[in-house]
Structure formats: structure tokens, C-alpha cells
Design brief:
This protein has three helices and no strands. It has 84 residues and is mainly α. Helix 1 crosses helix 2.
Amino acid sequence: MEGFGLIASIILGGLAGWIASRIMGTNTGILLNIVLGIIGAAFGNWLFRLVMGGTATTAIGQIIVGIIGACILIWGVRAIRGRA
């Protein structure tokens, strides 16, 4: 999460991970939601830079990017594990 401090990244990551877990129908705890959201945001930012040449700069934009990235990660884990 570019331009945000550590605490803000944890809060935004936790929120993004929680929303993504609800969208994808997973039952994960708060710690995994934070990790999922932060990794999802990093992956989402990388993907958005690759496709669009830039990424979101606001908190709302970063939450959306984090949600998209976390949903992709959840989908990828399910695909690898064989759970559809």
C-alpha cells in the first residue's frame, strides 16, 4: 500500500481481507484477514501497475485494490487445493 504508514496499511489490509473473505465465502480469523488483505493489496497494486500503468492513491482506492487482490488470492488457493 503505497504512501500509507504501517498502522494504516494494517487497518486497510484487515478491512480489505475481511470484505474479500465475505465475498468469497471463507471463514478466516482477523489475523488471516489482515495478512490476506495486505498481500492482496500488494498483489493488486502490482497487477494494476502491470495492466494500467498506475494504481489507486486514495484509501478507498487501496481498499478496492486490496479486495480485488485478496479475492484473486483466495480463488488461486482454492484452485490449487481443488476446492471450487
